[in-house]
Amino acid sequence: MKRATIYCDGSCSLKKRGGFASILISENRKHIIFGTAKNTTNNRMELIAAIEGLKTLSSPSKIRLFSDSLLLVNTMKGKCKKRHNHDLWDELDQLSSIHKIVWIWIKRNSIRGNREADKIAKQSMRGINEN
Predict the structure, then answer these.
(1) Residue 28 needs a FRET pair 20 to 30 A away by CA distance; which of 3, 6, 13, 72 works?
(2) Is 112 helix (H, G, I), strand (E, B) or coil?
(3) Could you give the CA distance from residue 99 to residue 5 in angstroms, rounded to a whole number?
(4) Ranges of each domain in the chain
């Protein structure tokens, strides 16, 4: 099984414009995925960041996924119930069944990969994609 690291983050403005970013590092290669959404929430953007990161993997992998979203990490560890965004939780469950994932919660912007994902997510939210 391949090994990969994913740093993901989501962002949302008061006007409900969202951005997400996922940074995948595998076999010394770095792949950045980002995008935007309208009429969304921060939680949806956090989930989409994780989903899009996992979707880029072409084969089952051992993954360390870092997120500053307690909701995402605790729910995937079975500590919280899925109350909203069932469409995204279902997709995340399906993708997670393919891989062996260690879900790691980190304090916001506490490590470089997360700081980079946060910056890209905010740029995407604002429509400033410099990557």
Answers:
(1) 72
(2) helix
(3) 12
(4) 2-126
User: Which residues 6+ apart lie within 8 Å of 56 measured at CB?
Assistant: 22, 24, 31, 33
pLDDT tens, position by position, 108-127? 877 788 889 989 989 888 87
- Distance in angstroms (rounded) separating the CA atoms of residues 103 and 87: 20
DSSP alpha helix (H) spans, 2-130: 42-55, 70-76, 86-96, 112-126
**Region of residue 18 (phi > 0: left; psi between -120 and 50: alpha; otherwise: beta):** beta
CATH superfamily of the 2-126 domain: Ribonuclease H-like superfamily/Ribonuclease H (3.30.420.10)
Give 131's pLDDT tier (boundaries 50, 70, 90): very low
Tell me the whole-structure pTM to 2 decimals.
0.90
